[in-house]
Amino acid sequence: MKNNSTINNKIPQLRFPGFTGDWEEKSLGEVGVFVRGLSYNKGEVTQDRAATLVLRSNNIIQDGVVDCRNGLQFVTKEPSSEQILQKGDIVICLSNGSSNLVGKSANYEGDYAGIATVGAFCGIYRSTAPITKYLVQTPAYKKSVELIKQGGNGALANLYGRDILGLKFYFPTLEEQNEIVECLEAEDRMIAAQEQKVESLKAHKKGLMQQLFPQPGATTPALRFPGFEEFWEEKKLGDICDSILVGFPFKGQDITDNSSGHPILRAYSIGEGIIRHGKDYDKYYPGDTKPLEMYKVSTGDIVISMDGSVGRNIALVSDDENGYLLIQRVARLRVTKYPVQLIYQQIISQRFKDYVAGEKVGAVIAHISQKQIESFPVFIPKSQQEQNKVADALTETDRLISTQEQKVESLKTHKKGLMQQLFPQLQK
User: Fold this and answer.
1) How does DSSP classify residue 92?
2) Is 294:314 a contact under the CB 8 Å cutoff?
3) What is the 3-state secondary structure (H, E, C) of 341-389?
């Protein structure tokens, strides 16, 4: 590939050999058509998976992928022939209460065996230009959408089909498009293969967990390290933790974006096995923290979100969060009597998720109480050596998973940088 050092907004920085000349500016309406999604009512929603699959905003995930496995909805209403998704269609979110989600898009690979369409809050863009599926992942597309979408700030944010079709970008010849698509599809295949490695490791760990811990009614696990024969003990979390603490009820006006304050650990920041950071997550308390010393978390503490996706959003406090203030509706578990990983691994297991599913309350926002957390049963080997071996085995498995996940992120970063060079910058 040739690197163009001279800045020209009508050609990319990086180009395949044999291609010269400016790219041509075209509207999306010149190279494709737009189809509004299917409208339906609650009475037409069904559990019959043989009915029409309706993809919604939640099925458009990062990196331009359509998820046809999770969060699916089926309806008895039949879509028009135009509304039936075809391989290569681009699914676009048109309306959402969260303005930042409006405009997000993904390519439909045709990997669903039945009839599929999109809901009324989404649309289908069907392009004759192969490069379009990657163009809608570029900063130029995202910037253009920000300029034309309407609403937001608490109101429903919207895009319209005419707005999508009116967007203008630069397109190369069909031959150059095919070269670019082939290159980026190769990147996608490498990412998908690496993601499959991660999923395989997670499946391996799940099976390992089932064998390393006693199953309901059993007093010993199916798989055991040599030299250990004693029965395991069943104890409640409240009995084996040094403390289980729920965070301080800060007032809304006491939480700011000003980083000169003391950092706060919120439920929103806790994901599955990770505490997230960034402008959307990091908040601060500007007041005196001396009266709040008991609410500071330490490295190795287990934190659990008690609202929303309870049973899933659980993580270990790292050095990065050491000393953060714990906010209301987040539980902190501190364990020193046993290896923390021995306890943590049981809390992030499917068994805890099943337990929470039976215990959680709340019609709108599900939540779990401190007492319910304290009552969760965990299994403990009598031998400290066996405790350490089980904890170390699962910790090592997590390290392997983390290493492979980092490789996924590295590949995605490489693809992002490549795309920045393979597409011209937006001129206007």
Assistant:
1) E
2) no
3) HHHHHHHCCHHHHHHHHHHCECCCCCECCHHHHHCCEEEEECCHHHHHH
Contacts of 278 (CB under 8 A, 6+ apart): none
3-state secondary structure of 75: strand
CA dist., res. 321 & res. 332, Å (int): 13
Q: Tell me the domains of the chain and their CATH numbers.
A: 25-171 (3.90.220.20), 175-227+382-428 (1.10.287.1120), 232-380 (3.90.220.20)
Which stretches does DSSP call E strand in 286-334? 302-305, 314-316, 325-326, 330-334
| pLDDT string in tens for the chain (428-residue length) | 767 655 567 899 999 999 999 999 999 999 999 999 999 999 999 999 999 999 998 888 866 888 888 889 999 999 999 999 999 999 999 988 778 888 999 999 988 999 999 999 999 999 999 999 999 999 889 899 988 887 655 556 789 999 999 999 999 999 999 999 999 999 999 999 999 999 999 999 999 999 999 988 899 999 999 999 999 999 999 999 999 999 999 998 899 999 999 999 999 899 989 999 988 899 999 999 999 999 999 999 999 999 877 778 999 999 999 999 999 999 999 999 999 999 999 999 989 988 988 876 654 456 889 999 999 999 999 999 999 999 999 999 999 999 999 999 999 999 999 999 999 875 54
What does DSSP say about strands 116-118 and 52-55: parallel, antiparallel, or unpaired? parallel
| Cα–Cα distance list, 24 to 1, 27, 67 (Å) | 20, 10, 33
Residue 24, number of CB atoms within 10 A of its CB: 12
Complete DSSP assignment for 96-148: ESSGGGTT-EEE--S--SS-EEEBTTEEEEEES-TTHHHHTTSHHHHHHHHHH
- Around Cβ 39, how many Cβ atoms within 10 Å? 10
CA dihedral 316, 319, 320, 325 (to 10 degrees): 70
Cα 63 to Cα 422: distance, rounded to the nearest angstrom: 17
**How many other C-beta atoms can be found within 10 angstroms of the C-beta atom of residue 230?**
11
CB 39 within 8 A of CB 120: yes
Question: Which pTM value belongs to this model?
Answer: 0.83
